[in-house]
């Protein structure tokens, strides 16, 4: 495929300074599409959520969805942007079967929101990411490629298009170049998108699920010689669809660019595709003039001029600023800075918050998400939110631990059951027979057996060495497959060997 | 205001034709490039009439904020939507191969 020379990431950073740019598309959760009344819901039968407008039939006229404009303004305000007093839609002209009109209705040099920022926390350090713009546009249809070996566009014989998604409102949020992050560039890129997703969820304007394409990130990266203060030529890696992939894509592109530059070559400004399986990017578009979109003002839609009164009304509906909120909740939860950092870093902040809201103690909620469930997500190569366990279920498992029905070790087996879809935590405990045994009859028999099997240990305890009881408790736990009430077992051991 | 109209070269027209997916022959390019330049000149003369107090106008109607409520209205059935399609497969529009042979 490629004969690219890759330079080790850390080595590359000794000679080059990376500049990042992120373009995030947020698919809104409005009831209808951006410019017509078709449902904007996910997963309908092909071509059942379409009309003359979103199919681009001759004579069909668009009409702007008020709710989508409202969402765009709220996103802009939450990103500390100015809101345009007057702005227009524009036609972005290109030919592609997923765009039935042969243009995408978007915004060009007059975005609805501009000049904002977001403060991003990475390992306790704050990076200010400047937001250039947030603009309104529409999604495209969905193509399925037929006849190629792997369902990819290359080698495909023909393609099938479903226009249900065409016209669903999108807000595209574009950063200015992010410089000065150095070795933290991959982490900053990831944290920015993570925090942006938290913000979008708090605003309630999108489901913001990366796996379903509600939130899609394009990662731009360039390298310049360290200390030069210049900006190099960038590559644009499209549709990087998980937080982890964002980090990997940045790392890979740093290594690739450094290889090109070290060899005396020039980085080509091009679109690239990220491959989840191999963690590499490959060149995308074959035509250099494909970016010539010949934008012009959309004649079928009149300008949008949000009154300042409306903007202020919407500002009043904004949720608490995520940074302020994190500081407040850290205090409420009694987390140390390190615990908080690990929680945010694991992408567990919102999940922990929901778990606590569902009744779990803060430390218990943190422990399950940041340790046990984060490990499972990593092993499975999925995002924490997609690990197969909900905050409500974590709270229910912890309630069973608090009640003494199970212990932490057995709780892990309950999580196995939850991931496998075996029912509620209570049902799994019953079906798998996981409840702790504290009944003296059953425990007593196991204790007697352990004493009989370990006469030396038993003698030590009789001689007053109570610390030795651990060995017998361990034997009983093993006998009872971890389901014995350890405290009661200790009492029984000491009673018998008094 | 610019008084000298931009003139279109043969290469400009070829490029625009390519972007618009219009296959023009050499003879057509020779014919069209000067014609389009004449059209630009004519438009430029109108530009000369407009004073500095006349802002560029993209929309002749002085209206803003024409919005639609976020309420679902019935659209087309899949059968209706696909009725004009040259080819249909699996309830989807079937389109020819998207990428050319060059790759």
Automatic annotation (TrEMBL), chain A:
Belongs to the GatB/GatE family. GatB subfamily. InterPro entries: Asn/Gln-tRNA_amidoTrfase_suB/E (IPR017959), Asn/Gln-tRNA_Trfase_suB/E_cat (IPR006075), Asn/Gln_amidotransferase (IPR018027), Asn/Gln_tRNA_amidoTrase-B-like (IPR003789), GatB (IPR004413), GatB_Yqey_C_2 (IPR023168), Gln-tRNA_amidoTrfase_suB_CS (IPR017958), Gln_synth/guanido_kin_cat_dom (IPR014746). Keywords: ATP-binding, Ligase, Nucleotide-binding, Protein biosynthesis, Transferase. Its EC number is 6.3.5.-. HAMAP family: GatB (MF_00121). GO terms for molecular function: ATP binding; glutaminyl-tRNA synthase (glutamine-hydrolyzing) activity; transferase activity. This is Aspartyl/glutamyl-tRNA(Asn/Gln) amidotransferase subunit B. It comes from Nocardioides zeae. Residues 350-497 form the Asn/Gln amidotransferase domain. GO terms for biological process: glutaminyl-tRNAGln biosynthesis via transamidation; translation. It catalyses: L-aspartyl-tRNA(Asn) + L-glutamine + ATP + H2O = L-asparaginyl-tRNA(Asn) + L-glutamate + ADP + phosphate + 2 H(+); L-glutamyl-tRNA(Gln) + L-glutamine + ATP + H2O = L-glutaminyl-tRNA(Gln) + L-glutamate + ADP + phosphate + H(+). Allows the formation of correctly charged Asn-tRNA(Asn) or Gln-tRNA(Gln) through the transamidation of misacylated Asp-tRNA(Asn) or Glu-tRNA(Gln) in organisms which lack either or both of asparaginyl-tRNA or glutaminyl-tRNA synthetases. The reaction takes place in the presence of glutamine and ATP through an activated phospho-Asp-tRNA(Asn) or phospho-Glu-tRNA(Gln).
UniProtKB/TrEMBL annotation, chain B:
Pfam families: GatC. InterPro entries: Asp/Glu-ADT_sf_sub_c, GatC. GO terms for biological process: glutaminyl-tRNAGln biosynthesis via transamidation; regulation of translational fidelity; translation. Keywords: ATP-binding, Ligase, Nucleotide-binding, Protein biosynthesis, Transferase. The lineage of its organism: Bacteria, Bacillati, Actinomycetota, Actinomycetes, Propionibacteriales. Its EC number is 6.3.5.-. The gene is gatC. Heterotrimer of A, B and C subunits. Belongs to the GatC family. Gene3D superfamilies: Glu-tRNAGln amidotransferase C subunit, N-terminal domain. HAMAP family: GatC. Allows the formation of correctly charged Asn-tRNA(Asn) or Gln-tRNA(Gln) through the transamidation of misacylated Asp-tRNA(Asn) or Glu-tRNA(Gln) in organisms which lack either or both of asparaginyl-tRNA or glutaminyl-tRNA synthetases. The reaction takes place in the presence of glutamine and ATP through an activated phospho-Asp-tRNA(Asn) or phospho-Glu-tRNA(Gln). It comes from Nocardioides zeae. It is an enzyme of class 6 (ligase). It catalyses: L-aspartyl-tRNA(Asn) + L-glutamine + ATP + H2O = L-asparaginyl-tRNA(Asn) + L-glutamate + ADP + phosphate + 2 H(+); L-glutamyl-tRNA(Gln) + L-glutamine + ATP + H2O = L-glutaminyl-tRNA(Gln) + L-glutamate + ADP + phosphate + H(+). This is Aspartyl/glutamyl-tRNA(Asn/Gln) amidotransferase subunit C. One of its GO terms (molecular function) is glutaminyl-tRNA synthase (glutamine-hydrolyzing) activity.
